[in-house]
């Protein structure tokens, strides 16, 4: 298991509640595993191999597709609360009694809910490129971002537009990321369906309905939390990360420069170091 990499770890399946979850495990067994929850319509292969391999050098990493997304069967959830319950069921299916949890983008919404409804499950929490329920600027995405994010057949150009700052330096790092994440050739995950795209955007919109009271939920997150974000996220406003850092009782925040939504893919070495140090 320890010798597997992002490119070679086999896709496995776990069945619970009539859903067949597609997942991959890599890295040394024995400690608290790090479960990673993916972005909007993302699948197992949308993670940056450089990030995953650097994390898996020090701990067991578990990647998973939400139900109805890519290689997982079932019906895609249209609320974050439902997605959180699905991911809790997945941890039960794998017999994981305690996990560290990293949620990126919509995965960060799900991770917040999981930390609130299953506090004993989560040892440490990492929220990346994400934002709080009901927070300002969270009710859907600006038009240009939505157009690229909801493309029927997403392209590399769409990812570069959404994920990376609109600067030459950040876009160049984005092109490097595209080369890395397309490098796996065997047993690649299948693309997500339009039905899962639409269900997940319903979940995004419901999560973002302005609700000042919902922000108080964050004060209930009991585990130590690390917040990672780019200094100018065009999809989920960076100010939301500062808001989360102020409301979660035991939170620290790291902002990466010249970066947008996918700071963890622009700075995979630095992000992995920050996460490994936080979890260690």
UniProtKB/TrEMBL annotation:
What GO terms describe the biological role, i.e. biological process, of this protein?
acylglycerol catabolic process
Q: Which region is the signal sequence?
A: none
Q: Which GO terms describe its cellular component?
A: membrane
Asked if Oxidoreductase is a keyword of the record, the answer is yes
Kindly list any coiled-coil regions of this protein. Answer: none
Which residue ranges does the record assign to the AB hydrolase-1 domain? 33-266
**What's a Pfam family in this record?**
Abhydrolase_1
Instruction: Output the Gene Ontology terms for molecular function.
Output: monoacylglycerol lipase activity; peroxidase activity
Keyword set, alphabetical order: Oxidoreductase, Peroxidase
Q: Which Gene3D superfamilies match?
A: alpha/beta hydrolase (3.40.50.1820)
Q: Which PANTHER family does this chain map to? A: MONOACYLGLYCEROL LIPASE, MONOACYLGLYCEROL LIPASE ABHD6
Stated name of the protein: Peroxidase
Q: Which organism is it from?
A: Streptomyces phaeofaciens
